[in-house]
Amino acid sequence: MGPKSARINAYILYAPLLAVVVLALLAQYFYLVPFLIGFAFFFKAKRSVIHSGNLVSFGPSQMTKKMKTFYWLGYAIMISSVALSAWLAIQTRPVS
Questions:
Q1: Do 24 and 39 reside in the same domain of the chain?
Q2: Rounded to whole angstroms, how far apart are CA atoms 47 and 69?
Q3: Is residue 70 exposed (0-12), middle (13-18) or buried (19+ Cβ within 10 Å)?
Q4: C-alpha closest to that of 39 among 74, 91, 84, 85
Q5: Helices (H), the chain
Q6: Of 46, 36, 34, 33, which is closest to residue 72 (Cα–Cα)?
Q7: What's the CA gap between 67 and 82, in Å, rounded?
Q8: Number of domains into which the chain is organized
Q9: Which end of the chain is less packed: N or C, by CB atoms within 10 Å?
């Protein structure tokens, strides 16, 4: 068995396990999913700056127009997710 077929066998073996773990975490922490989607957009935009050689940067000034859109979209989704989570926490708290 070569390395390519060993890799394919590993995917076949571990993919269902990984899928079950991911689904279980998503069911338990469903309110984190929008935040993680926003963070993915933000990270995609920041990664473009890091690949250009700037490890530390503030703001989207060194990004292309497309990456600036991902940057601000990521921030908007993350902030909306935090606001929605806070609202849900207030709505579902026990009334004493």
A1: no
A2: 14
A3: buried
A4: 74
A5: 3-28, 32-51, 65-92
A6: 46
A7: 23
A8: 2
A9: C
